[in-house]
């Protein structure tokens, strides 16, 4: 089991930072697997074993006083993110001997993703599982990391998440929002486009109404390809496709089956890019001031373990889900390397223009690319 050794509350309050895309990095600049913890007022200690070998029945740790917490998410009840969130809640209750209970509200029961993130900030809810929404709080230096093809797979994403670049953004986000990322070890599959229309090359994107998250930089980015990028709340995406409000949805590939996006679609276009994470967000006043050291450590451990569980489910589900939607008559098309380079060139040119216009600090896009050995030139 991964363990964390927390420093004093004074240090916890004195440091700041947290969150990326739904968002996901621990900022310790170390291994690709990471501990899933941003290094905010904490000293990370990795036991070198991701398996839980401790006998919780012999744990004499005092996890009091009793806590009853609320946690929201946007994933459907059947989605693997919801299954993994429930595992997190169950682990916390079991290992605390019932002293800490977390009630989960999936499927956007508490509101949209942006609404729930704001609720975490103001303390209306305690925890939230979602992808990266940090740029909505003005963390502009995170924008280069969201440029498509700046990472090209899960291993690239892990290196990015564990970089000093990410830690600086986590710190700024915590300071501005009062939200801490408890875990980002919830690595997702790469993204794809489920579409009514056939998409194989750049020219096929023209005018297609593509659902994207309500993040301005993401909207702008996809518009560069000719899409009519349309922000739609996640819980409204399926009905929007069914009612022909949108023609396609950009999402992690496994969600095409679990969220039902395959039903109105005829094609799945695999981009093999922009692997990302889910994040467990926490109200920092609760986490740093209300919780005891033992409670913080337990929440951290269980979130990391549930994240590993989620990552495994995501990897295992993708192949099965692909077979399922193909059996339902949906054709899978994989982007070619040549076409991927065409898309990347447009995205990278867009990033250069954004940087020149002062959207983020000079030189950051090249810094992001260099983490995984890429270049904009």
UniProtKB/TrEMBL annotation:
This protein's superkingdom? Bacteria
Question: Quick check: keyword Transport in the entry?
Answer: yes
Q: Would I find DNA damage among this entry's keywords?
A: no
Membrane-crossing segments per the record: none
The record's section on InterPro entries has: DctP_fam, TRAP_DctP_sf
A GO BP annotation:
transmembrane transport
Keyword set, alphabetical order? Signal, Transport
The signal peptide annotation in the UniProt record is 1-22
Which Pfam families does the UniProt entry name for this protein? DctP
User: Region Disordered: what ranges?
Assistant: 31-68
Q: Which Gene3D superfamilies match?
A: Bacterial extracellular solute-binding protein, family 7
UniProt lists the family membership as follows: Belongs to the bacterial solute-binding protein 7 family.
Q: Which PANTHER family match?
A: C4-DICARBOXYLATE-BINDING PROTEIN DCTB, PTHR33376
- The name under which this protein is listed is TRAP transporter substrate-binding protein
Organism the protein comes from: Schaedlerella arabinosiphila
């Amino acid at each position: 089991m991964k363990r964390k050794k927390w420093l004093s509350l004074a240090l916890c309050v004195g440091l700041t930072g947290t969150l990326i895309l739904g968002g996901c990095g621990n900022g310790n600049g170390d291994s690709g697997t990471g501990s899933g913890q941003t290094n905010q007022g904490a000293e990370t200690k990795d036991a070198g074993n991701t398996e839980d070998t401790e006998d919780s029945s012999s744990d004499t740790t005092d996890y009091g006083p009793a806590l009853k917490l609320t946690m929201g998410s946007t994933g459907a009840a059947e989605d693997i993110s919801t299954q993994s969130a429930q595992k997190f809640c169950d682990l916390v209750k079991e290992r605390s001997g019932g002293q800490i209970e977390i009630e989960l509200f999936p499927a956007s029961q508490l509101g949209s993703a942006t609404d729930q993130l704001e609720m975490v900030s103001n303390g209306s809810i305690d925890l939230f599982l979602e992808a990266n929404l940090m740029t909505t709080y003005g963390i502009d230096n995170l924008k280069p990391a969201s440029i498509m093809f700046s990472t090209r797979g899960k291993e690239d994403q892990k290196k990015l998440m564990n970089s000093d670049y990410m830690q600086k953004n986590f710190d700024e986000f915590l300071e501005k929002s009062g939200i801490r990322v408890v875990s980002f070890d919830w690595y997702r599959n790469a993204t794809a486009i489920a579409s009514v229309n056939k998409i194989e090359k750049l020219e096929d994107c023209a005018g297609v109404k593509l659902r994207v998250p309500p993040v301005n930089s993401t909207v702008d980015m996809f518009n560069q390809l000719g899409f009519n990028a349309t922000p739609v709340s996640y819980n409204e995406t399926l009905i929007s496709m069914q009612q022909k409000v949108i023609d396609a949805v950009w999402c992690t590939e496994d969600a095409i089956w679990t969220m039902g996006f395959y039903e109105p679609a005829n094609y799945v276009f695999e981009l093999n890019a922009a692997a990302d994470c889910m994040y467990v967000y926490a109200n920092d006043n609760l986490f740093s001031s209300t919780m005891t050291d033992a409670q913080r450590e337990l929440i951290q451990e269980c979130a990391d373990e549930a994240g590993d569980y989620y990552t495994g489910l995501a990897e295992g589900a993708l192949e099965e889900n692909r077979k399922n939607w193909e059996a339902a008559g949906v054709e899978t098309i994989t982007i070619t390397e040549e076409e991927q380079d065409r898309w990347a060139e447009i995205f990278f040119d867009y990033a250069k223009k954004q940087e020149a216009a002062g959207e983020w600090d000079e030189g950051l896009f090249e810094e992001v690319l260099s983490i995984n050995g890429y270049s904009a030139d």
